[in-house]
Design a protein that fits this description.
Chain A is of the alpha/beta class and about 280 residues long. Helices cover about 25% and strands about 30% of the residues of chain A. The chains are: A alpha/beta (about 280), B alpha/beta (about 475). At the A-B interface, helix 1, strand 8, helix 8 and helix 9 of A face strand 5, helix 12 and helix 15 of B.
Chain lengths: ~280, ~475
Amino acid sequence: MNHRIVRREGLGGDTYLFEIEAPLAAARFRPGQFVIIRTTDKGERVPLTIAGTDPEKGTVILIVQAVGKSTKELARFKAGDALQDCIGPLGNASEVARFGRVVCIGGGTGIACVFPIIKAMADAGNDVISIIGARTSSLLFLEHEISKLSKDVYVTTDDGSKGRRGFVTDVLTDLLKQYNGKDGIHRVIAIGPPLMMKAVAEATRPYAVKTIVSLNTIMVDGTGMCGACRVYIAGEMKFACIDGPEFDAHEVNFEDLISRLTMFEEKEKAACEHCGNQPEV
Amino acid sequence: MLEIGGKRVAMSEQEVTERLKNFRSVPLGYTVEEVMVEAQRCIQCEHAPCERHCPVRMKLKAIIRKIAVGKFRDAFLIAKRDNPIPAIAGLVCPQEDQCEGVCPLACHGQGINIGKLEAFIAQWAMENNVKEEFHIPEKPEKIAVIGSGPAGISCAVDLRRHGYKVAVFEALHMAGGVLQYGIPAFRLPKDIVDYEIAYLEEIGAELKLNHIVGQNITFEELQHEYAAIFIATGAGAPQFLGIEGERLKGVYSANEFLIRANLMKAYRFPEYDTPIVCGNRVGVIGAGNVAMDVARCAVRLGAKDVYILYRRTRKESPAREEEVEHALEEGIKFFELVNPVRVLGKDDGWVSAIELLRMRLGEPDKSGRPRPIKIDGSEFTMELDTVVEALGTQPNRLFLDKIPELAKTKWGTIEVDERLKTNIDGVYAGGDAIRGNATVILALGDGRKAAQSIHEDIVARKK
């Protein structure tokens, strides 16, 4: 199978956009779903949330932060190169309906993941308020596109280089007060680092606002066969690949999620050293 | 006095110390001389019980006769007729319960080593590039086969023999199903699997990798496009005990452990990207073939102490004799009559130990094996770094959940009639998807049977 990269853009820092030929995934994609890629025939299966598609060209857009062996390898691919596999779409689509006022939150590369959901929520007639955050201004992207689809857009950076200094939850907490909790905010969707999603869950919990997060677990096959992606939702074991990746944030056991994400940390370092890439600290 | 038929020709194997350093086949296979001597021992008995006990009714008597006189090509072509993947059955069948177990010479403990004869001719055919040639009268009908494991492969081969156009849909990036992701290379060398898959494509079956029916292609689309569908999606969903501590780092399902080690070649990390963390002390829960595979992978990945934790005793293990023997030779220890209570962890989220409860054996249960009974208050802990749950698997959920109209049994397997037809017209099923955890050879048999049913029904429809 030939999955040619038709476009590659640096988005600042170690984040890159890839547009990849994957006709099957492009034709069937619904917001919230992901693909599994393999860079080479020796590559691992890496799940990546789809940031957008061009069904006519048969391409999917992935926004990737080069943090591990495989994503660093991918970052060195140029337009015209081909990936070994780009399999999908996998996972379930986001629940999209006319909820009323929806707050969509993206942190880091999660901005890319939440982007198709923002679009779908806006298309479904919701008032979308978007909050996007990153460590620093150079790691923000899609702000312009998101603002076109949203009623309001808030930007936060950890260092204050753009928008409000602080975290996406600072804005969220203000909005929850301003709109009087669940009477004014009918749904929150947050995609980003696990700690961010956990903080979002804690922010909305007192207001009982329905909150959805997309869990970026370790996966191998992505089709329900290995159980590597098992997560605990309201005490029950679920597989992020076929039961998720989206779950009710208030039911997610984030401690287990965060702990299990580090299972192969040492091996990842070894792999990066093997390919001559020191992992960032 | 020498018994009739004499003694079994011994199979040479890789030395234990050597094989623990690699994932290559443990049995080294017969030489031409050895295989002929072994075949010449066959007394060619009139009733050939071996054939009657072969789930695909291979013509073993004739095959052995050809091997005895060195006509390996003929032997292979006869074998291939009834069993599209003879090498695979030769290496992974539970022969002691089938052909070899009923060999008249077996009562002297010297039954013909039929499995290794089959493995030899298949290996010989691969090395000499011998292929079954058949003239295919092309038919217009297209048939979809879902899953490229043993059931899917054998169904596809037979459908091609009938001349149907065949598309095989495979969810993973490699074809072969459990032969690829489950059974380790030291038991089933992957060049043999690759050879059989390549053969499937050579005879004109279309392989559609990365096609996940129910996910990126719908069942309705297949129904629309194909004259019939054969579901061979296997039983690939892992089961967990549901005990405390399963969420800890260092706890795997057997499927995850084997998929990493086999399909993703984690044993060649970092040359291959997929990692596996296998500690020094490994506990494998369960004692079937899959548990043996996990344990034997673990020693090859460098584990120092590997324990099979089993609630019955070694005698009741459902694993093939050869696998248990190889496991014991490789230093794997059977820890009998124990049942896991919970997995204990450290502050850093990694496994530290397992709590076990001692069991005793009671009266036989439905399976005919003595029922394990808990001994109250006998809990104790055992230090472990890695825990692998090899408890058997269930039919793949992703696919079945998307077709609610497909009738299922109370065990979650697909319900079929004796012709392997499901409750949906034009849809057939076989292999582990209808049996739960069964064997490669039964899946092969199902594939053939379903192909026959599909053919008959298409012919009948035209009348």
